[in-house]
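Key idea: predict the complex, not the pieces.
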Amino acid sequence: MSRIHVTTTVNGDTVEFLADPRETLLDCLRDHVGLTGSKEGCGTGDCGACSVRLDGTLVCSCLVLGVEAQGRTVETIEGMATGGELHPLQRKFIEHAALQCGFCTPGILVAAKALLEKNANPTDTEIRYWLAGNLCRCTGYDKIIRAVQDAAAEMRGAA
Amino acid sequence: MVAVNLWSSLARFTDGARVVEVQAATIAEALQALVALHPGLEPILKGGVSVVVNGEVMPNRHATIAPDAEIFLLQALKGG
Amino acid sequence: MPKDELKAEFRLVGTRPNRPDGLDKVTGRARYGADATLPGMLWGAVVRSPHAHAKIVKIDASKALALDGVKAVVTRADLPTGLTGEDWNLQENTLAGEKALYDGHAVAAVAATSRLLAEEAARLVEVTYEVLPHVIDVDDAIRPDAPVIREGAADASVPPGMPPNVVRYLDFGRGDIDAGFAAADLVREQTYKTEATHQGYIEPHACVGQLGADGKGEMWVCTQGQWYIRKMCSAVLGLEAAQLRVTPSEIGGGFGGKTTIFMEPLSLALSRKAGGRPVKIVMSRSEVLRATGPTASASMDVKIGMKKDGTITAGRAEFRMQGGAFPGSPVAEGLYCAFAPYAIPALQHIGYDVLANRPKCAAYRAPGSPMGAFAVESLIDEMCRELGLDPMAVRLKNAVREGDTASYGATFGSIGLIETLEATAAHPNLAVPLGPNQGRGIASGFWFNHAGETSVTLAIGEDGTATVSVGTPDIGGSRASIALMTAETLGIRYEDVRVNIVETGALGVNEPTHGSRATFASGKAAVIAAEAAIREMCNRAAAEWGIEPEAVEWVQGAAQPAGPNAGKFPPMSIAEIASKMGGTGGPISGHHESVPDGFGASFGAHVVDVEVDPETGRTTVLRYLVVQDAGRAIHPAYVEGQYQGGAAQGIGWALNEEYIYGKDGRLQNTVFLDYRIPVASDLPPIDTVIVEVPNPGHPYGVRGVGETGITPPLPAIANAIHAATGVRLRHLPMTPPKILAAMKTKG
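Result:
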């Protein structure tokens, strides 16, 4: 199948790649752009390990075709820290031991950041429902919820 | 002599004995002596057993065993 | 070492520093199985049987090979013959031979220049099957007239006359079982069933394998044990172990499921056929669920005798487990664990390992123990209710202590079950009042723990920092705990220790990270290696000072004269000794390899409060408590993480997860939408209490903590649902339809 030229913006950088029209955005990010921080845990939109923002909207990049990224803006885990500075969520995930194997962590961080931009002061229940599409098999979620709450509190304090 | 406690279905190979006394200074010798006395045990012991000496799983077949040691054989254990 | 010699005050042990791999993991930099790309790399895809049981009549790959860009096809004919025992089992599971034995069984594999092309080529491989009768359920598989999965698979343990799919048998016990039951005031017997579940690690299996015509190969793979990958791939492909170099990636969860091989030999076999080009294979989620190693399903009869005061007089357990189309269900482990928390004078255990047309089971966190606990802990709860006894008091009354003979025959050393139960009883969660349709359940759990082959090297850097090379992949934070223990021992900062998980060429053979062993065994070896390095650094200082090495001691990261008679010299720091080591005898390192002894057994107790919706039968977990003996928590946050993660998996197993097969023997729930593991909104906070009864077999008192936590949730939730509804579910999972039906029957 002939490939399609795609120009898109990933984490602020203009990126070009040739995509097979059957390839997902996740495939393109990982195999053509070289950003392997987004993970494939299921390929069916159930696990959230591939969560990215597409024009600001939280999506499972395994459910978006690579060619759909043409002319749009993609944010991935690799763009979450600004310069050398970790996002508060990244820092709090380390401090609270909110990750074990770390495979779901990129997707959860991207999703949690989207939540805190919509709702700076979520309840535990709101966090749990927002992250219900991001599976974690190691932690039982307890420390993840605490880390998100602590990051939210810090971000409210800084705002 | 040390007494080796077998799991009960092994009694099929030991003329009904659940405890077999052998002359042995190490675990390896104890297992060899068991097979010498009861050759039917050989495939089971070769297939993998965990040897418990005085409450402790002892993976080292050259570990020495005191004459009054308490020895149990278990089917080999694995973990996740 | 004797208990009273164990230190109790520490500088670093017991603190909660940031994990060394944290930054890589929150920035997306950490490299997992599927994240590697090599020059000239091909992609592999696997052709899988759609049938549960079928003769393979013909495999025609001509259409696939005709595609431009398809470089190799591998079938069983490409693998060596003559393997026996578990090596044969592994090879047969890697690629089916004469028969496909389960839905998803690999039949062929292809390599092509892209992932999409490889998948397309796999679809073009034409396999002609002759479908055979199949059997899925363990109670069906053990029937004498069940379809025979493999003639001659039974080992010597199986007495003559057993049904054809029984491949292993055991029975063991002690005391006079009839007298034990006769001495009881109440004797009850029930049958319990658990369904197969999957470890559910979020990272699918992935590897890049490369193998040349010279028999030299390399592999990058997500695994719990790089040496197991090496050993098993070598056996399946007929390679020399030393020629295969296996490098473990970061691992996205394993829980026992990544202690064996699946598609790894295929990538090597494809590579060899494709002229040595590396071949990457990444499983889909459906492949993971259909064709990796879920746990066994179990059917269990349990009989218990109890006196009116709660004393348990006798116990009998007969377990039937299917672990797929190969021997190896954890029926022995399940039986050993079932009554382990109790001191019972008369016991009988009988176990059958049964073949069924399902994937070859792998280890799953405390293999066998959750099933056994579900049966025994449920029945104890049932009997406590019938006799009007407090289930916590009954557990305490019968609990094993140091010196007791375990149900499986050995004698317990230092264990912490009593302390664990007492801490549980004292927890405020037990005082929370319950509302309508709510119930509280408790249960205990046990796991042996494990040590295993271990080899660790520690090297002192030029600046006095330390690098530790270990062979146990870090699944739950073991790099942090090993760095803490090493830094504590050397007397340096936590940040000055780097722990690397190394490839197979860098150390002696290590068993995988399994059996709750990494922090215990690699940690113990790292401490002993550090002590060796300390001895050498004391030697260097002694030489510098011109005194005897015995007159030098190591205090707070520096050598110093051991007393006033040794001489008067200022302490010589590790950095100073290290900076000069090139001129004082060369590099300083420490090494230790052994199968460490002294791993301590692990007990836990869980308390769960649930609410059951009487309209829908849906169970909501309101609050959850895990109490478990850690011996000593090196990094308490990651100990808590193990407790919470184990509980979450157990909750999924209890309430929702199961392998569902159609009448055609095909797995019906092959994606996470249908094989639904607990999501964040399903679970409450999971409270933890770390009990510390130090293990005298470890320099810092560690006992493994990884596995026990998955065991109590199954019965604890069943007991809580009974308390909430009055109905007793004896067949997992306890889904809303099952609970609703039971409540309707009860009326």
